[in-house]
Design brief:
The protein has 85 residues and is mainly alpha-helical. The chain contains 2 helices and 2 strands.
Length: 85
């Protein structure tokens, strides 16, 4: 039996936010529904921020060496070995 994920993925959260935005932009949406959608949107934004913060902390841990952060430059795939020319 496959495990059910209790927390939505980051992509799911963004999709839900997009759907809410579309409904909020619709002039036919009632004030009550707009308020409910806005409240749900705030909750979704908080979930997304938490997910991003958790991911950032994981990356930070992966880049640490001996308890100290290590800065690493991104590799430029188009750069050659000769940087001086």
């Amino acid at each position: 039996m496959p495990k059910k994920s209790t927390a939505p993925t980051f992509a799911d959260t963004l999709s839900q936010l997009e759907a809410l935005t579309t409904r909020l932009e619709d002039p036919e949406t009632s004030l009550e529904q707009s308020l409910q959608d806005f409240e749900q949107g705030v909750q979704l934004i908080r979930q997304a921020q938490q997910a991003l913060q958790t991911a950032e902390q994981k990356v930070q841990l992966l880049l640490e060496k001996d308890g100290k952060p290590v800065a690493q430059a991104f590799a430029d795939p188009g750069a050659g070995e000769d940087d001086g020319e």
